[in-house]
Structures are given as C-alpha cells and as structure tokens.
Specification:
Blueprint (H helix, E strand, L loop, with lengths): L9 E7 L7 H13 L2 E7 L4 H5 L9 E3 L3 E5 L2 E5 L3 H4 L4 E5 L5 H9 L6 E6 L10 H13 L2 E4 L2 H9 L7 E3 L7 H9 L2 H7 L11 E5 L8 H14 L4 E5 L9 H5 L3 E5 L3 H10 L3 E2 L7 H8 L3 E4 L17 E4 L3 H12 L13 H17 L8
Parallel strand pairs: 1-2, 1-6, 2-3, 6-7, 7-8, 8-9, 10-11, 11-12, 13-14, 14-15
Antiparallel strand pairs: 4-5
C-alpha cells in the first residue's frame, strides 16, 4: 500500500554518511519506484571524511539534504557527534545504518515506540570488514531485534539477522550492487582497437602478463600490501604490469612501481576505462577488501586475485572460489606467487552473471513498503 487513506504522500528518509557517485543511480531509481507507490523519499547525508574524502566521488544532488557532524577520535575509532534528527523526525519511516556507534540509529530506534517514525536498519549486518567491538556488537544485536525492518546487503547478512533475533518476515536481502547498465553497454561496444586507444597511456599491452586494479587507493584496499607484492614480482619477472584505475590517499605508495614502469596510474575509472581493462587485462588484483569490485569483475568477465585476509565485504559472496575468485595465503610473498602462477596459465573466460540495479531497487522498495505497513518496532526487545 502506498499513500495514506487521506491521500497524503508518506515520507521516508534514508540517512547516509555521504552519497558516493556509484550510489546516485540507486537512489534515483529507488525514489522513482517509491513515488509510484505514493512514497516520497529523501536522502540525508553528511560530507565524506578521511579515506572517503580522498576518493573525490561525493555527489551533490537536489534530493540530498546535508547535515554536519562533529567527529572525535576514540582510540582507533571515529565517533560522530550530532544527528540528522531534524530531517527525519516528522517522516513516516527512516532507514539508518546498522552501526553501534550511530547516534541517528540509536535515537531513531529509541523513539520508535514513542510515536516516532518506523525504523529500518541497513548494512552488512555482520562484522565483515573489522573485528567486532564487544559493546558495538551488543548494541547492533539490539538494533537488529528492535528494528521494524532489516535491509541486509547479501544473503549472508540476512541469515545473520535472523540468527540475531530478527523476524524473517522483517528481513530483506537487498543484493547490494552498482549500476551496471553503462558498463554493460561499454563492454558490448569496446573492441580491441578501442581498448588500446582508451589505455594509450599504458603503451603496448600484453594481456597475458597484464593485470588491473580498480578501486579506491586507500587503506581498506591494502595498497601498501600490494606495493610489497609488486616489489617481489619485479624481482622475479619484470614483464608483469598492473594498470591502476582509481584515486585515493595512498596513491603514493605505488610510486616505486610506477617509476619503474611496472604500474600505470590511469586515474578515476569510468565505464569505458573499465570495459577497456576487461579487454586488455587477465584478472583484477585486490589483496584488500573485496566489495562491489565483485560486481565489476563479474560484469567484465575477469577473475579476482585476492588473499585469505578475513575482512572482505559481504559482496565477496558473489564470487565463486576457484573460478571467479583465486586466493593466496595472506602475505605479500604468497600473493606475488599467486600472480606469477596465474601468468603461466591461459587467461580465464568467465560467465557474466551478477546482481542488477533494477533488482536491488525492487528489493529495497518492497522492504520499505513492508516497513511502512508494519507495526512500529519489533516484537523482540
């Protein structure tokens, strides 16, 4: 059911740390889909900080309401002080991040039984990308049990939400993804000649000995680890090259590899550069966090070479070990050996199958409608 019996549009807010460029198509599609159901969606976002700000990918759009938070360091963690309460307090529902330290999330859930908006939480659900802080873990379990609806990125997160006490009928598996439409078009359009032109800065390319890195050049991607592995590869084989598509605060760590011609920095990767990399390289190197790069890799038909590092994001579930995902032990030496061994095999041809943006929009919109039509709060305390 969409609008209320009086014909008033129901209003929903989604609170975000910031809106990166790759999320714009999702939010625009979700706004349009919910509007068809009589629901007005706004996105409330802070500005990026730290490694996020180094990516230079924040979007500023008319339907994004901005608010500012003060940040303080507590040990190795950043705590954000301040909320977006003034934006969501009169909404019918608000979807907030599943995060123990989030003031918005905890405030919204505390108010949900006091005539406040209905509250959904969304995110990884599990502690995929870091070790769980015991206090945060306790709070996040309460958040899952208290929320009117849980939006889990992947099936693994949805299963965990149920294990933590969420009613299965109040859990939506979002199948988190990116807008692959432009990338799919580029993949279909870019031929070998166009790939050479798009990657002209790299000079002549031998696909069997060339790899890609696509993503932010920041700590989560373990750029220092990659640089160490490239040093070891160089000592054994100076013909192996890496084409690096991305920007970030740790870009300088690849300086030695760039200076000796082993790595080429291509800057921010648009769909055409990604499609060219799909044509010109044999695999994607990602020793750090595998997240939405899994979708890019599947769309390009390239395997991901990674490690047994335990902090991959939930989207790594989309990859099949031994086929679209090849892993080494978690050391620069072992990773270098994985890359060198791959050079000695024929390039792999992989089927292209991945979660679509249309599917994600449909999943999320259905969850929002269930949140709006459900009882406030959860039956589990």
């Amino acid at each position: 059911m969409g609008s209320t019996d009086t014909g008033r549009l129901r209003k929903v807010a989604i609170v975000q740390p910031y809106v990166p460029t790759y999320r714009v198509a999702f939010f625009e599609g979700l706004r349009a889909r919910l509007a068809e159901q009589g629901v007005d969606l706004i996105v409330v976002a802070d500005d990026p900080d730290g490694a996020q700000s180094g990516r230079n990918d924040a979007a500023d759009l008319p339907w994004v309401e901005h608010f500012s938070q003060r940040r303080i360091r507590v040990g190795s963690r950043t705590v954000r002080l301040g909320t977006a309460y003034r934006f969501w307090k009169r909404c019918d529902a608000v979807v907030v991040g599943h995060l123990g330290s989030s003031l918005d999330t905890n405030l919204a859930l505390a108010l949900s039984s006091l005539r406040g908006p209905k509250v959904g939480v969304w995110g990884h659900i599990g502690s995929y990308v870091r070790d769980a802080n015991p206090v945060d873990a306790w709070v996040e379990r309460w958040q899952v049990r208290r929320a009117g609806h849980v939006f889990a990125y992947t099936p693994g997160g949805a299963r965990l939400a149920v294990e933590l006490g969420a009613d299965p009928s109040r859990v939506t598996t979002v199948m988190n993804t990116i807008d692959t439409a432009v990338l799919e078009g580029a993949v279909e359009s870019v031929d070998d000649r166009q790939a050479r032109e798009l990657l002209a800065a790299a000079g002549p390319i031998d696909r069997r000995r060339t790899f890609a890195f696509i993503g932010g050049l920041d700590a989560s991607k373990r750029i220092g680890f990659l640089a160490e592995a490239l040093d070891r590869i160089w000592d054994e084989d100076q013909t192996v090259r890496v084409l690096v598509a991305g920007r970030g605060e740790e870009e300088s760590l690849l300086g030695s590899a760039v200076d000796r011609g082993q790595a080429v920095l291509l800057g921010y990767a648009d769909a055409w550069i990604k499609a060219a990399l799909g044509r010109a390289t044999r695999a994607i190197l990602m020793p750090g966090r595998i997240g939405l790069i899994a979708v890019d890799a599947l769309a390009l038909g390239l395997p991901v070479l990674s490690t047994s590092w335990p902090y991959h994001a939930p989207e790594s579930e989309y990859l099949t070990p031994g086929e679209s995902l090849l892993q080494s032990d978690d050391s620069p030496e072992a990773y270098a050996r994985l890359v060198l061994d791959e050079v000695r095999t024929a390039p792999r041809t992989l089927p292209r199958g991945y979660p679509t943006l249309d599917g994600m929009i449909e999943n999320f919109s259905a969850g929002v409608l269930r949140l709006l039509d459900g009882e406030p709060g959860s039956s589990a305390a």
